[in-house]
Design brief:
By secondary structure, this protein is an alpha/beta fold. It contains 15 helices and 23 strands. The strands form 7 sheets. The protein has a 7-stranded mixed beta sheet with strand order 17-18-16-15-21-22-23. Strands 3-2-1-5-14 form a 5-stranded mixed beta sheet, sandwiched between helices. Helix 9 packs across helix 14, helix 10 runs antiparallel to helix 12 and helix 12 packs across helix 13. The chain binds adenosine-5'-diphosphate. Keywords: ATP-binding, Glycerol metabolism, Kinase, Nucleotide-binding, Transferase.
Length: 513
């Protein structure tokens, strides 16, 4: 039986392919969870949608599923004191203010239907000033392009806009709105880590910026933008109006990558985390002032715990193809039966035998931003074995991670001392050892790698006093961590990185003719 005094925090982890609900104790251990996958909708090449109602339904079912498992362990539902939300970022939903019903499917962050629109926007006067104001350059990712697409292409959205009834939200806003019961309470909020992905928010003030709204030619009297409130807040996110947790307050909200940084306890300037999932996302805490990148990175809000604390900022770098390259070796090339066996295959050789694999399946993201590269394998000889190619596949993500860290050091003018890691590909010991060798600093992999969900629970728990301050979280999820330390001399890793850089140069322009 759980002790009477013990309290727990729930975490809604609304990801790109599944929704989950986890219940954490004060030590940061997940004691119960439930996960549901939902439909991926691809109406045309490059289009990617989710059904907003199916997502709400999946979240509600996850909450009830996890609560049932929690009770089976003898815990009382009343010991769950608050709930946090973490979500896929940029994914956009629009709904009608009068009905609270969605006007179309959600457009997912990966969706590229706004390519032509983005090209047009880039030509507009002031396009080059956007990054200084909002931290992001124009691309298909931010929510603003998705909103413009809705207004231009979905008659119901256009009509709601003309009538001044169009509500815009990222997934956190949609979840908070519906989980509070929709228009009855009309909870309409977002946190700065999510708002910093829209291109509407001034990254310096954490407020909507008229010049950004003007640039996108959106009429602020016709579209409703959610109120930006701190990532940890006792009242603004309302409370659950359905499920077994009816009445439990929602008190934390963070975009998924920010949540992972918080879950890794990257609270202080100079700390960084890398999540090696399908793609890989690095966030580097730069402290209380935003750093606008001049080296191919994005600026984002790490978290804002409100009260008398200052918001913290991060530099972000993403790699399009990370774990998916390992999956490619399994699914497309049949090198092994599973991702973990690719790592085992790579262990059969001592090094990549001179093979360098630039896994630019859809160009290269940060810090290179090369659109016209495609995947290219260099250095194949009669000596090359499958193990060499497997190893070169794992190395590709590690090399790109080093390139991003180099850019982060240049932008922030500080050198990182340790990298915290999570995500599917971090399960590979070999990959993490290679990573440490290439960046020359320790790589710290916690035993419990549900860091994204933990981050949202931490935000929610801070708001309700489960943890009085971030100092109390020092011991959370430290036991059983694996630390990988560099095992090769710097000259060696520099030489290998120089070879990688040459391969990146040579992969440019393949799509050009
Ligand atoms: P996402 O959240 O993006 O769906 P996950 O964090 O679940 O991703 O990670 C899944 C990815 O991790 C897959 O692409 C898979 O190839 C890779 N992966 C999982 N286990 C291993 C392993 N042992 N070695 C290398 N890659 C792995």
């Amino acid at each position: 039986m759980g002790s009477v005094a013990e309290s727990f925090i729930g975490s809604i982890d609304q990801g790109t392919t599944s929704s989950r609900f986890l219940i954490f104790n004060k030590h940061g251990d997940p004691v119960a969870s439930h996960q549901i996958e939902f439909k991926q909708i691809y109406p045309h090449p490059g289009w990617h949608e989710h059904d907003p109602l199916e997502i709400i339904d999946s979240v509600e079912k996850c909450i009830d599923g996890a609560v049932a498992a929690f009770e089976q362990q003898g815990h009382s539902v009343n010991s769950i004191k608050a709930v946090g939300i973490t979500n896929q970022r940029e994914t956009t939903v629009v709904w009608d203010k009068t009905t609270g019903e969605p006007l179309y499917n959600a457009i997912v962050w990966t969706d590229t239907r706004t390519q032509a629109l983005v090209r047009r926007l880039k030509l507009r006067l002031g396009a080059d000033k956007l990054q200084d104001l909002c931290g992001l350059p124009l691309s298909t990712y931010p929510s603003v392009g998705k909103l413009l697409w809705f207004i231009e292409n979905v008659p119901a959205a256009k009509e709601a806009y003309e009538k001044g009834n169009l509500c815009f939200g990222t997934m956190d806003t949609w979840l908070a709105f519906r989980l509070n019961g929709g228009i009855k309470r009309n909870v309409f909020v977002t946190d700065p880590s999510n708002a910093s992905r829209t291109m509407f928010m001034n990254i310096h003030t954490l407020k909507y910026d008229d010049s950004l709204i003007d640039f996108f030619r959106v009429d602020p009297s016709k579209v409703h933008l959610p109120e930006i409130v701190p990532s940890a807040d006792k009242t603004k996110y309302g409370s659950l109006a359905s499920t077994r947790l009816t009445g439990v307050p929602i008190t934390g909200c963070l975009g998924d990558q920010s949540a992972a940084l918080v879950g890794q306890k990257g609270f202080n300037e100079g700390q960084a985390k890398s999540t090696y999932g399908t793609g890989s996302f690095l966030l580097y805490n730069v402290g209380e002032e935003p750093v606008i990148s001049t080296h191919g990175l994005l600026t984002t809000v790490a978290f804002d715990f409100g009260g008398n604390t200052k918001p913290m900022y991060a530099l972000e770098g993403s790699i399009a193809v990370a774990g998916s390259s390992v999956k490619f070796m399994v699914d497309n090339l049949g090198f092994a039966e599973s991702s973990s066996k690719i790592s085992a295959l790579a262990e059969t050789v001592e090094d990549s035998g001179g093979v360098t694999f630039v896994t630019a399946f859809s160009g290269l993201f940060a810090p290179y931003w090369i659109d016209d590269a495609q995947g290219t394998i260099f250095g194949i000889t009669a000596y090359t074995q499958r193990g060499h190619i497997a190893r070169a596949t794992l190395e590709a993500t590690c090399f790109q991670t080093r390139a991003i860290l180099n850019a982060m050091e240049k932008d922030s003018k500080k050198a990182l001392t340790e990298l915290a890691v999570d995500g599917g590909m971090s399960n590979s010991d070999l990959t993490m050892q290679i990573q440490s060798n290439l960046i020359g600093i320790p790589v710290n992999r916690p035993a419990m790698r549900e860091t994204t969900a933990l981050g949202a629970a931490i935000a929610a728990g801070i708001a309700v006093g489960t943890w009085k301050s971030i100092d109390e979280l020092r011991e959370v999820n430290t036991q059983g961590a694996t630390i990988f330390r560099p095992e090769i001399p710097k000259e060696n890793s520099d030489k290998r990185f120089a070879r990688w850089t040459k391969a990146v140069e040579m992969s440019k322009g393949w799509l050009g003719d």
